[in-house]
Write a structure and sequence with these properties.
It comes from Rhizobium straminoryzae. With about 130 residues, this protein is an alpha+beta fold. It has a single domain, classed as 3-Layer(aba) Sandwich (Cytidine Deaminase, domain 2), CATH 3.40.140. It is about 30% helix and about 25% strand. It has 4 helices and 5 strands. It is globular, with a radius of gyration of 14 Å. It starts with a helix and ends in an 11-residue tail after the last helix. The structure holds tetrahydrodeoxyuridine. Tetrahydrodeoxyuridine (THU) binds next to helix 2.
């Protein structure tokens, strides 16, 4: 059920710290432990030091004991169906599988569902590192 994840992402967006871009983003992960982990973007006066909503949620998941992303919802106040940026795609892929669902939302709910394989085809993978 994606509606609860949408609502969680929307609530997370309310915690965004985005005074520079004024572009609040929220993310909510349902993890393999059944819990929902939240994230919002956290900006910095030294602009490159800020980070996106998705890694906040991933950090919360890891520290909360979750290890796998079952599904993830992303929402941005000013952009319907805001797609995770390139770096975030790789970060999500680290904890996801090709069939992990990614929900892109607008202000009323989930508007687009993608698999990780659709969102990030040909992702960086190698056995050399492990
Ligand atoms: N942002 C995210 O939080 N996630 C994305 O996937 C795209 C961009 C944030 C970063 C920055 O705080 C603001 O949106 C404008 O780029």
């Amino acid at each position: 059920m994606a509606q609860d994840l949408f609502e969680a992402a929307r609530a997370a967006m309310g915690r965004a710290y985005a005074p520079y871009s004024k572009f609040p983003v929220g993310a909510a992960i349902r993890a393999d432990d059944g819990k929902i982990y939240l994230g919002a973007n956290v900006e910095n006066l030294s602009f490159p030091q800020g980070w996106c909503a998705e890694p906040t949620a991933i950090g919360n998941m890891v520290m909360g004991g979750g290890r796998k992303i079952v599904e993830i919802a992303v929402i941005a106040e000013k952009l319907a169906c805001c797609p995770p940026c390139g770096g975030c795609r790789q970060k999500i892929a680290e904890f996801a599988g090709p069939d992990t669902r990614v929900y892109l939302c607008d202000e009323v709910g989930v508007q687009k569902t993608l698999t990780m394989d659709e969102l990030l085809p040909f992702s960086f993978q190698t056995d050399v590192i492990g």
